[in-house]
Amino acid sequence: MNVLIVFDHPRRDGFCGAVLDSFVQGLQAAGRRTEIADLRAEGFDPRLDPEDEPDWNDPRKVYSPAVLAEQARIARNDALAFVFPVWWWSLPATTKGWIDRVWNHGWAYGDRKLPHRKALFLGVAASDADHYPKRGYDSAMQTQLVTGITQYCGIADSRQELLHGALGDEGDRLALLKRAQDLGHSF
Ligand SMILES: Cc1cc2nc3c(=O)[nH]c(=O)nc-3n(C[C@H](O)[C@H](O)[C@H](O)COP(=O)(O)O)c2cc1C
User: Fold this and answer.
1) Nearest atom within ligand 1 for CA of residue 132
2) What is the rounded radius of gyration, in angstroms, for the C-alpha atoms of the chain?
3) Which domains, ranges and CATH numbers included, belong to the chain?
């Protein structure tokens, strides 16, 4: 299985980058081939301009070269994972814009869906695990990301995992990196 991992953080060398590395190590140890889309380092523009707006009357609209390149990168992989810091109980804006632009009408939803075998949203969160259900943030994210995006676009085997306590001490962080590695291994 070939896995595209979409990474979104202003710094590749921070804790979220270490989570990415651990997740990839787990995937590779299990024999998966990996490809990383580092959206910030690559300078991906998340704004949806008119050339990438859906034409509801033309599901075969040809989108911009930047979007076609991203769609080709998605299409050459069998599974997708997102590694991101939780920002305001959601995805960072660049990943949101990547989905807005690239997962477009007639390609990811509408008369065509994505054929991928599975998807994972792996979010890195500062708040503790018990803080999330208290206000329904975990189920809100699950509905928005898993039900509303990946499953809506045809990837039935989709789920969300949150690594809580990312601002904790060295021991806490090492445990989160081990969890990320295990999630990669079992993906
Ligand atoms: C703009 C912004 C919004 C954030 N919102 C949340 C949030 O809603 N829930 C949460 O648990 N952590 C939140 N955080 C904390 C980040 O998830 C945390 O800083 C990150 O996962 C740890 O990596 P970093 O500090 O290297 O970025 C937020 C951080 C920033 C910068």
Assistant:
1) 11
2) 16
3) 2-186 (3.40.50.360)
CA angle 63, 34, 26 (to 5 degrees): 140
Is 14 near ligand 1, meaning CB less than 6 Å away?
Answer: yes
Tell me how far the alpha carbon of residue 96 lies from the centroid of ligand 1, in angstroms. 16
Predicted TM-score (pTM) above 0.85? yes
CA proximity to 38, closest of 72, 4, 66:
4
pLDDT in tens, 116-152: 999 999 999 999 999 999 999 999 999 999 999 999 9
Classify residue 105 as exposed, middle or buried by CB count within 10 Å of its CB (0-12, 13-18, 19+).
middle
Q: Of how many residues is the chain composed?
A: 187
User: What is residue 143's predicted lDDT score, i.e. its pLDDT?
Assistant: 98
- CB of residue 126 inside a 6 A radius of ligand 1: yes
Residue identifier of the C-alpha nearest atom 22 of ligand 1: 166
Residue nearest atom 19 of ligand 1, based on CA coordinates: 126
* For the CA of 89, the nearest atom of ligand 1: 8
